[in-house]
Write a structure and sequence with these properties.
Blueprint: H1 10-22, E1 33-37, E2 40-43, H2 44-56, H3 67-75, E3 79-82, E4 87-89
C-alpha cells in the first residue's frame, strides 16, 4: 500500500476517533497541535495515522507536525488548537 494523505476524508477522521474511543487507544501526546473533535482535543498526527488506517488499512503519517498536518484537518472543517499559544485556529 502507499501513503495517500489526499484520499483521507472527514469520515475517515471521524471513524478513527470512534476506533480510538471504542478501543481506549493510548495516543502519543502532541507537543503543540491538537485537533478538536466533539469538544475533545486529540493529537493531530496520531489522528491522521488512524484516519489513514481507516482509509486504506495502513496506519502511517509521513508529514511532520504543525501546518504540514493541520492543513489537512482544517480543510476538512476541524478546529485546530495551538496548545503553546492556547488558541484555536480554524
Amino acid at each position: 500500500m502507499t501513503f495517500q494523505p489526499n484520499d483521507i476524508t472527514r469520515t475517515h477522521v471521524l471513524g478513527a476517533i470512534k476506533k480510538i474511543e471504542k478501543e481506549v487507544i493510548q495516543l502519543n501526546s502532541a507537543t503543540r497541535w491538537y485537533v478538536e473533535i466533539e469538544g475533545k482535543p486529540y493529537p493531530s498526527k496520531e489522528v491522521m495515522r488512524y484516519a489513514h488506517e481507516q482509509m486504506n488499512g495502513e496506519k502511517i503519517w509521513k508529514p511532520g507536525g504543525g501546518p504540514e498536518t493541520t492543513s489537512y484537518l482544517i480543510k476538512m472543517g476541524f478546529n485546530i488548537i495551538d496548545k503553546k499559544l492556547n488558541a484555536e485556529i480554524n
